[in-house]
């Protein structure tokens, strides 16, 4: 593996000329500067739109055929991956093992700095082996500077096992190259605080992960229109959202929508199909299964009968 001892040339490590007087700015000037710099994240996402779309398709195809999605990173990058993975079960009612976040140093690194652990490529490879990554899986390596040995070791190990790989970095490919199936470069420029990639690099990475996970779940039929019809109804707020979703899509009263939700065992997608089809819960469930959980496809099938 390439040795990255000298990192001063990397875009993520450079000094931002717009913030050279950062410690002399007023609070309002500081806020305005952050706002101006953060605007660059939108352009970075737009510039990577084709790569992001390709990654969405690869992830959706893998999950459709029984594969899993893994995010792997260290420090801020690792925390962002774990965050996105953790939010998939409540948002899309997915099993916890479907989307997993791996961070150098394990769970303890989520709340305590452990950046020294990112320098071991063998640990990244071991994390891939422990999870028995295989050819149906997708592994997304997240590293702002593109150089993190833990991530690069994991990507190499994943490729060796036949998994699809996606790389997310905030430096140009001509500065740091790696062998991945989809190479996503989010070029936001030098940070307001030199080298602090929890800033723009972290923000644009979160934006990209939002697109990857949500986009893949949309492709899998876990969304109807722009509604979370696979939401896990686990608390009062989510139950209220589920009832309102049923109301909005059916014009039912709140009481009737609540009753329908209970009859479907709090499965919004099933409740909607029961209403539209006139079928009971068991028959509606079988119909959803036939169409791989895609509510729109199941509803269209009912209409054509």
- Portion in beta strands: 5-15%
Shape: globular
What class would the helix/strand composition place it in?
A: alpha/beta
Spatial separation of the terminal alpha carbons: 59 Å
The percent of residues in helical segments reads: 40-55%
Which CATH class of the largest domain applies here? Alpha Beta
| Domains, number | 2
Q: And the CATH topology of the largest domain?
A: Rossmann fold
Largest β sheet strand count, sense and barrel closure: 5 strands, parallel
- Which blocks of ≥5 consecutive residues have pLDDT under 50? 1-6
> Nearest-angstrom radius of gyration?
22 Å
Q: What is the tally of helical segments?
A: 12
Mean pLDDT: 94
Assembly annotation: single chain
Any guess at the CATH architecture of the largest domain? 3-Layer(aba) Sandwich
Instruction: Let me know the CATH homologous superfamily of the largest domain.
Output: Glucose-6-phosphate isomerase like protein, domain 1
* Largest sheet: spatial strand order: 2-1-3-4-5
Run of helices and strands: HHHEHEHEHEEHHHHHH
Give your account of this protein's structure.
- By secondary structure, this protein is an alpha/beta fold.
- The protein has 12 helices and 5 strands.
- It has a 5-stranded parallel beta sheet, sandwiched between helices.
- Strand 3, helix 6 and strand 4 form a beta-alpha-beta unit.
- The longest helix has 20 residues.
- It is globular, with a radius of gyration of 22 Å.
- The chain starts with 26 loop residues before the first helix and ends with a helix.
- 43% of the residues are buried.
- The N terminus is likely disordered.
């Amino acid at each position: 593996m390439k040795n990255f001892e000298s990192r001063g040339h990397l875009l993520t490590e450079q000094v931002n000329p717009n913030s050279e007087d950062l410690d002399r700015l007023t609070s309002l000037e500081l806020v305005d500067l952050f706002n101006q710099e953060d605007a660059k994240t939108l352009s970075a996402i737009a510039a990577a739109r084709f790569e992001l779309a390709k990654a969405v398709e690869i992830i959706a195809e893998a999950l459709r055929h029984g594969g899993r999605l893994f995010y792997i990173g260290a420090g801020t990058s690792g925390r962002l991956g774990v965050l996105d993975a953790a939010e998939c079960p409540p948002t899309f009612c997915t099993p916890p093992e479907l989307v997993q976040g791996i961070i150098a140093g394990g769970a303890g690194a989520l709340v305590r700095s452990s950046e020294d652990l990112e320098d071991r490529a063998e640990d990244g490879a071991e994390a891939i082996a422990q999870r028995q990554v295989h050819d149906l899986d997708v592994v997304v390596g997240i590293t702002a500077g593109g150089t993190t040995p833990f991530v690069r070791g994991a990507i190499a190990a994943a490729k060796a096992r036949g998994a699809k790989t996606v790389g997310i970095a905030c430096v140009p490919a001509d500065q740091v190259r790696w062998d991945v199936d989809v190479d996503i470069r989010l070029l936001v420029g030098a940070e307001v605080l030199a080298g602090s990639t929890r800033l723009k690099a972290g923000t644009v990475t979160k934006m990209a992960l939002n697109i990857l996970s949500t986009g893949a779940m949309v492709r899998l039929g876990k969304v109807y229109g722009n509604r979370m019809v696979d939401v896990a109804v686990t608390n009062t707020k989510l139950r209220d959202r589920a009832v309102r979703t049923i109301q909005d899509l059916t014009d039912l009263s709140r009481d009737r929508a609540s009753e329908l939700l209970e009859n479907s065992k709090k499965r919004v997608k099933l409740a909607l199909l029961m209403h539209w089809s006139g079928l009971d819960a068991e028959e509606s469930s079988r119909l959803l299964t036939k169409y791989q959980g895609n509510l729109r496809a199941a509803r269209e099938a009912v209409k054509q009968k």
